[in-house]
Amino acid sequence: MTDSPKPFHIVFLLFDGITQLDFTGPAQVLCRIPGAVVHTAAKTIKPIQTDSGFAILPSTNFADCPQADLLCVPGGFGIRDVIQDDSTLQFLRNQAAGAKYVTSVCTGSLALGAAGLLEGKRATSHWAYTLLLEKFGATYEKARVVKDANVITAGGVTSGIDFALTVVAEIAGQQVAETIQLSLEYDPHPPFNSGHPDVADPDTLAALLDRVYDKQAADLADIIDRL
Question: What is the phi/psi pair of residue 125, to 5°?
Fold first, then answer.
């Protein structure tokens, strides 16, 4: 008889205004690690409003959350409240102290920074917010996935899938990671070459910055400076 794999506890932080794919993308991959047990943690067990018009019900509150082997903080516009919430930041510190991996997707890296977990680390975030990393003593590295010791940060949204596969390969081996990638048919061929500022049409980039990201980045910068 084959022994069952040792439980590997994966804790995702949930908060109102979360970008659901920052969470659900890596969760779909990480849940397939042998022995994986996924926990979705929020301050209280009540529906969490995502950016996509539907809600997610957390599986645990902070007080009852098991110790993570892998802690993951997704991003989203709601991160502005997370980085100002002492109880959430203390939860992250407590979990990070015992975690094998401390990770983030998109602007989740700013929450790690606000919790003091990026000091002296190389890190990344969504392209519109990378300049904010230095406010937390981190050094921005231009990559979809950046690993510095046990801290792993991913760029914007879809790079969370890349981060998750990277972690699976480290934990369970490349063949397991490749099998998961194949099972999910993760073989992206986007219809447009517009997924990063380096390749996007300049007018499209300028319009998006003007409409959304310039203001959001400035607001977050002001909040961080007041922390």
Answer: -160, -175
Strand partners, 39: 11
Q: Which helix (H) or strand (E) holds 27?
A: helix 20-30
Instruction: Choose the catalytic residue: 31, 65, 72, 106.
Output: 106
- pLDDT 10s digits, 7-19: 999 999 999 999 9
Give, in order, the Cα–Cα distances in Å from 216 to each of 16, 80, 97.
Answer: 16, 9, 30
31 vs 165: CA distance, rounded Å? 11
Contacts of 220 (CB under 8 A, 6+ apart): 79, 80, 83, 107, 110, 129, 132
Distance, in Å, from the CA atom of 44 to the CA atom of 62, rounded to the nearest integer, reads: 8
Of the candidates 63, 99, 83, 78, the one whose C-alpha atom is nearest the C-alpha of residue 22 is: 78
| Alpha helices in 43-194, H assignment, sequence order | 79-82, 86-98, 108-114, 159-172, 174-183
Query: Is 106 labeled as catalytic in the residue annotation?
Result: yes
Tell me the average pLDDT across 212-218.
96
* Chain segment 75-128, per-residue pLDDT in tens: 999 999 999 999 999 999 999 999 999 999 999 999 999 999 999 999 999 999
